[in-house]
Design brief:
alpha+beta, 2 domains, three-stranded antiparallel sheet, 2 helices, 30% strand
Length: 83
């Protein structure tokens, strides 16, 4: 690889890192009171999950994580919103 190509790759990495940092800093953060959390449990069929999550979103809840239980049809949706 040439030196200029390495420099360009380094510049791209720095720009991506900077964009990530700007997004992190300007992301939605609670002004006071911190966060409140909710765990929503679904069992198969999961066809109504989108409707429930859309309803929660109307009240300010954001989906932050999903976890499954091995050998089970259970899915946990972890939500948060500013207090």
């Amino acid at each position: 690889m040439t030196r200029s190509r390495i420099s360009r790759i380094g510049l791209v990495i720095v720009l991506i890192a900077a964009m990530f940092c700007v997004g992190w800093v300007t992301g939605k953060q609670p002004t006071t009171g911190g966060w409140e959390y909710e765990i929503v449990e679904f069992h198969a069929p999961h066809s109504h999950a989108k409707t429930i999550l859309d309803q929660r979103g109307e009240y300010g809840w954001e989906l932050v994580s999903i976890s499954t239980v091995p050998n089970s049809d259970t899915i946990y949706y972890y939500l948060k919103r500013a207090k």
